[in-house]
Amino acid sequence: MLQFPSISRLALVSGLAAMLAACGGAGQELPAASYAAGSIAPSEEYTIGPLDEITIHVWRNPELSADKVRVRPDGRLTIPLVQDIPAVGKTATQLQEYIAGELAKYIEQPIVSVIVNTPEGNFNQQVRIIGATPQPASLPFRANMTVLDAMIAVGGLNEFAAGNRAKLIRLDSGKGAQAEYRLRLSDLIRKGDASANVMLKPGDTIIIPESRF
Known about the structure:
Elements lengths: L5 H18 L29 E6 L7 E5 L5 E4 L2 E5 L5 H12 L8 E7 L7 E6 L5 E4 L6 H7 L12 E7 L4 E7 L1 H6 L14 E4 L5
Parallel strand pairs: 6-10
Antiparallel strand pairs: 1-2, 1-5, 3-4, 6-7, 8-9, 8-10
């Protein structure tokens, strides 16, 4: 049998490992979050989710308005004259247009405004952090949210976390495919490396493994 020197075997194994890493989605890295003034911009328009608290104001008809009404778990809500309004999945603009259309059956040219007071976060607009962190959680996404914001919210890494082996799972809704990106959470949190901070998108999931030893 042909024998390879130990150095050659080591080089071969290292080369294979590098190739596998390059082929796997987790080897990709996202660009660092920019703090330039021009990078601060509105996010995707928020869609209402179950248990969101909203205020509905009907101009010149306070008796038809509803202050701090909560969307039911079934995704609907009720105001005077209109019951079982489908709210989940609508933006505030879409909901106010729907309610105005329903109220038009009873009053002339209703003007309706909808304000989301307490967004609980629709499932596809949450950011999930699981694994080796003190407080795994699902967080409502907010405009210009970064990995650092999410990690502060869950208490950072626990003592067993392998932060630089963390992954970000992101669904590309246009392609209907899932992508994985490598995160360097230890560099970000324990070394203060700002280049390891990246922007998040609604629906992102951060997975933090534990160290093998």
